[in-house]
Amino acid sequence: MSELRAEGVWAGFGSKVVLRGVDVVVRGGEWVTLLGCNGSGKTTMLRVLAGLHTPDQGRVLVDGEQLAHLRRRAVARRIALLPQTMPPLSGLTVRQLVRQGRYAARGPLGMLTEADDDEVRAALRDTGTQDWADSPVGQLSGGQRQRVRLALALAQDAPVLLLDEPTTYLDVRHQLEVLDLVRRLQHERSLTVVAVLHDLTQAVRYSDRVVALRDGRVHAEGVPQDVVDAALLREVYGVRGRVWQDELGGLVCTFDGVSETD
Questions:
Q1: Do both 64 and 172 map to the same domain?
Q2: Is there a single domain that holds both residue 169 and residue 72?
Q3: 242 vs 230: CA distance, rounded Å
Q4: Any long-range contacts for 125-131 (C-beta under 8 Å, 24+ apart)?
Q5: Which of 10, 105, 125, 246 is most exposed, with the fewest beta carbons within 10 Å of its own?
Q6: How far apart are CA 260 and CA 255, in angstroms?
Q7: How would you write the pLDDT of the chain (262 residues) with one tens digit per residue?
């Protein structure tokens, strides 16, 4: 199991500062969800953790090694990212797409072979996509395509999995199917997971810990039961609401309106 750590990260775009001295530690095998309203820095933080955005200050380490000192393929062997969106995939079958996840391990010449390796077969099997393996990706439903994209990330066989709003555009049933699948794979593969989720009830249900960002800084962090409350809804999201425990012991967030003060 791999540990992912960000230390004193400042990052932005040109003169725009997005992250302001962020420290995040994700222990091996843990699921941490980044919370916050739009513009709080969640996606930028995820891209920094993936090695896709170089911080202006601070550093990111995976198992004690700085990402900045690793080649791109070496990073890809350790960290897989499921982004919010992907470019059009017309003409590719599910199997052909999932094979692309093996680039870091097989290199450009290895990608020319048509043979599946154990990791591709395992990714198709574990995500339940093997029955569609020879179907064009463009013909699949939204929920099916999201499973295929997850299979693509799993084919990297990386111990760290980053998810940027993995339930976007999915109905409630498919949202839960995807999150249940990620949680099962987290345990079966001993994955370290970092996710960005907008649905607070889902975030507190699936996460081992949450990190709430506000204005590019860590506002609160900890286990959901200790962190997610009415004060966090008001201070991070600017809404009035309540957080209560249902009969199964899970936390539920309900919203009463926009807060008059941030």
A1: yes
A2: yes
A3: 5
A4: 126/151, 126/154, 126/185, 126/188, 126/189, 127/151, 127/154, 127/181, 128/181, 129/94, 129/98
A5: 246
A6: 14
A7: 899 999 999 999 989 999 999 999 999 999 999 999 998 999 999 999 999 999 999 999 999 999 999 998 899 999 999 987 777 666 889 999 998 888 777 666 555 566 668 899 999 999 999 999 999 988 888 888 888 989 999 999 999 999 999 988 788 988 999 899 999 999 999 999 999 998 898 999 999 999 999 999 999 999 999 999 999 999 999 999 888 888 877 888 888 888 765 5
Length of the chain, please? 262
Q: In Å, how far from its chain's centre is CA 95?
A: 23
DSSP string, 61-123: EETTEEGGGS-HHHHHTTEEEE-S-----TT-BHHHHHHGGGHHHHHHHHTT-----HHHHHH
The answer on 96 and 153 residing in a single domain is yes
CB contact at 8 A, 78 and 158: yes
Count up the domains in the chain and report the number: 2
Please tell me whether residues 175 and 199 are part of one structural domain: yes
Q: Which positions ≥6 away from 186 have C-beta within 8 Å?
A: 29, 31, 161, 193
Q: What range does the domain containing 38 cover? A: 4-78+158-258
